[in-house]
Structures are given as structure tokens and as C-alpha cells.
Amino acid sequence: MQLQVARIGKPHGIRGEVTVQVLTDAPQDRFVPGTEFVVEPAASGPLTVSSARWNKDILLLGFEEVADRNQAETLRGAKLFIDTEELDVDDDEGWYEHELVGLEARVGAQVVGKVTALNTMPVQDLLMVTTPDGKEILIPFVEQIVPEVNIEEGFILLTPPDGLFELNSDEAAAPEPEGTD
Looking at residue 37, what DSSP letter applies? Predict the structure, then answer.
């Protein structure tokens, strides 16, 4: 099985470097020179890291197969994957997106939606839950709000604060008109 660790953004400079959206909690281990990534679309890869450096909060990667900005532009939007066999199987610290997507989101025994994505952010991760009526709700992926993740039984348990599910709804955005008598 493969795990996505980054998405390539725009080119940076003229030597073929690209910006990447990091989707791993260990970029210092994943993006070292010599690391080879499986790429989607497959026609763009495989790619081997030749350089990795941070420019403020943005990771810049250079690849052995990419010599200039024109080649780098063709990689925009490509996804970088590693084989999960390379991962430390004793890591009980968290979950990967592929493990969470598709799980039922429950509040008590009531199913309130399905997990459709995991957004990794600098401060905390966010789960995207799509409700049965198609609304997308961002849920802070913290223990107080998501006290249980049960991969085997296919669900996450939520204890959302009041208003979390209404926050993105149309009713919350538009105030009720007051009656005029």
C-alpha cells in the first residue's frame, strides 16, 4: 500500500525546484536526498530527491529528474507517495488519511456523516466530515472532540461542542428576518 506524503505546488526559481504541501508529520525523515517517490500521475515519476530546504514555512524540493523551471511546471499538482512497508509499524501516535477516510462519524449512536479527508495543519489537524445532506464540516482532530477512532469497526466517535455542525450551515449564515407588525 502507498501513503501520500506531499502534493507538488508551483515551481520556485529557475533550477527546477518546486514548492510542496507537506502531508506527513515527519518531513525531516521523508524528504532527504536519495529518497525515491512514486508519483501520481505515473507519467511524472518516479522522482528522486536531490535537495530539500525550507524557505520560511515552505518546503522546497529539487529532483534528480528535473533540470529546470519548465520541467518543474509539468509537475504542478502531482502527488508524492511512499510505500507503507517503509513505515514504522509500532507508531501508535496517530492515524494516516487512508485509514480515516470512509469511516462513519458518530455522535453517540447517531451517524452524522462520513470522514472524507484529513487536513494536516501546523497547529492541529482537521477532519472533513460530509453529512448525509452533503454539507462539509471541519472537525478539530483533538481528543476532546474525537475521543475514539475505531478503525476495525469503521467509525469515529465525536463529542462536538454546541454549534459545531451548525457553524457551516446556511441557517447559521442568514439571520431570521424579524416580523414587522
Answer: E
